[in-house]
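4.2 Preliminary Data

To establish feasibility before requesting continued support, the project team ran the inverse folding procedure on a target of 355 residues. The structure was first converted into the token representation described in Section 3, and no sequence information of any kind was made available to the design step. The complete token record follows.
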């Protein structure tokens, strides 16, 4: 087992990474200080892991809130179901929420924890590769709105994150590819050497070779923990973690939540961001090809779906990074370095969206 720490002063917490941790009672319960636990999961993951987890928690009063599976259910109805479960079971501040699932479950459960009785503790147990390397770390919680993704939420840190590599065996190839999009992102924004490692080992990762998976999960979490420790609430450097997301969120919003997986939209979004960086002269042709080819080799889409220009640009205008109605993009200045900028000709953005 490997342990990372997200350094946020009195809100610091550990990330545990290893094999079989979902069966490790000591790891699961070491950060639970309450008598009652509410397990939040979805209809898919609960069938795989819920009973085993409940058996580990026989010393606690356990209730469960099961929501539907899919990005389209990351909404107020699912959030309200969790609130109702907590209230019907007379849960109070002596309750810890355990988020057992992928990014949707983690985000909704985290927001429920942040807002129920103005804040109760929660623990992340991510069960998808994407959630393990990205959404479970950093304290971003929330739900989608019909007009925009993740528009309602809060920064709220977990007590711990427990990453069990064994759960990845239940994922299909599409889910693995979606997680690899966020892994590739870390190489593009922070670590050229890591990007080159991914180029060499992408086939091993797609085959779920645990030696390589443990390394990329650890390194991804390590990069994110460093960025979050420097800028918890995204007032500066943390925004670079959104490489590909301005385009990607627009794709998700315009197609309808759940049509493309989040990681698929981000993968395509990173290609579009690389095209913008190429147009600025910040990436050369060879580097652009490297980006596009690795994303393609990860089984991610590299062509923007057919979405009308006005719909697409309208969705981009709702991005949370924007200021003074200007669209801010995360772009690359070479592989391994990213910036947040609105300093680009709008005609270049229009051209990439239209073509």
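Position-by-position output of the design step:
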């Amino acid at each position: 087992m490997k342990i990372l720490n997200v350094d946020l002063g009195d809100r610091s917490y550990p990330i545990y990474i290893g094999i079989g941790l979902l069966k490790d009672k000591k790891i699961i319960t070491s950060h639970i200080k309450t008598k009652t636990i509410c397990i939040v999961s979805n209809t898919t993951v609960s069938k795989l892991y819920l009973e085993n987890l409940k058996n580990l928690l026989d010393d606690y009063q356990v209730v469960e809130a099961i929501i539907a599976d899919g990005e389209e259910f990351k909404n107020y109805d699912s959030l309200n179901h969790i609130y109702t479960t907590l209230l019907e079971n007379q849960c109070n501040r002596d309750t810890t929420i355990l988020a057992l699932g992928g990014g949707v479950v983690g985000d909704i459960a985290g927001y429920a924890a942040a807002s129920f009785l103005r804040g109760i503790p929660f623990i992340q147990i991510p069960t998808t590769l994407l959630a393990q390397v990205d959404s479970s770390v950093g304290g971003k919680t929330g739900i989608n709105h019909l007009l925009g993704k993740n528009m309602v939420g809060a920064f709220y840190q977990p007590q711990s994150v427990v990453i069990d590599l064994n759960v990845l065996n239940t994922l299909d190839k599409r889910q693995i590819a979606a997680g690899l999009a966020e892994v590739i992102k870390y190489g593009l924004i922070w670590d050229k050497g890591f990007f080159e490692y991914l180029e060499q080992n992408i086939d091993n990762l797609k085959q779920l070779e645990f030696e390589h998976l443990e390394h990329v999960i650890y390194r991804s979490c390590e990069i994110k923990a460093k960025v979050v420790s420097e800028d918890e609430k995204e007032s500066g450097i943390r925004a670079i973690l959104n490489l590909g997301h301005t385009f990607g969120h627009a794709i998700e919003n315009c197609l309808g939540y759940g049509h493309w997986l989040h990681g698929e939209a981000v993968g395509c979004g990173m290609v579009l961001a690389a095209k913008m960086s190429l147009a600025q002269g910040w990436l050369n042709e060879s580097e652009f090809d490297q980006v596009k080819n690795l994303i393609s080799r990860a089984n991610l889409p590299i062509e923007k779906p057919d979405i009308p220009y006005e719909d697409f640009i309208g969705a981009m205008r709702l991005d949370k990074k924007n200021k003074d109605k200007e669209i801010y993009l995360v772009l690359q200045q070479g592989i391994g370095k990213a910036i947040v900028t609105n300093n680009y000709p709008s005609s270049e953005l229009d051209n990439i969206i239209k073509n």
